[in-house]
Amino acid sequence: MSKPTGLVQGALDLLILKILALEPMHGWAIAQRIEQMSNDVLQVGQSALYPALHKLEQNGWIEAEWAVSENHRRAKYYSLTAAGKKALAQEAAQWERLAGAITAIVRTV
Length: 109
Prior knowledge:
Layout: H1 9-22, E1 25-26, H2 27-37, H3 46-58, E2 62-68, E3 74-80, H4 82-106
Antiparallel strand pairs: 1-3, 2-3
C-alpha cells in the first residue's frame, strides 16, 4: 500500500500541537516525530509543515524562538502556549468525534 504524502490540514494542526505538547522542537524534528510515531505511515513535507506552523503561530497556539540544534545549527524551536494547550484539547475532542463518525460509516455492512 502506498504511503500518504499529505494530510488533511486540520489533522496536521492537531498532530503538530500534540507533538509540541510533548516537548519544544524545531520543524524538521516535528516532521520526523510524526513519521516515527505513526510507524512511517504519515509523512509531512516542508510545503505543508511550515505553513501550518506559521498559521498556528499566528493563532497564538505556538510560539517560536531561535536556538542551536543538536547538530550545532541555528533552528527555530516551537513550543505550545497556554492557548495552544486549550486548542489541543478542543481539536482532539473534535477529531475523536469525526473519526468515530467516519469509522461508524466505514464499518457499516
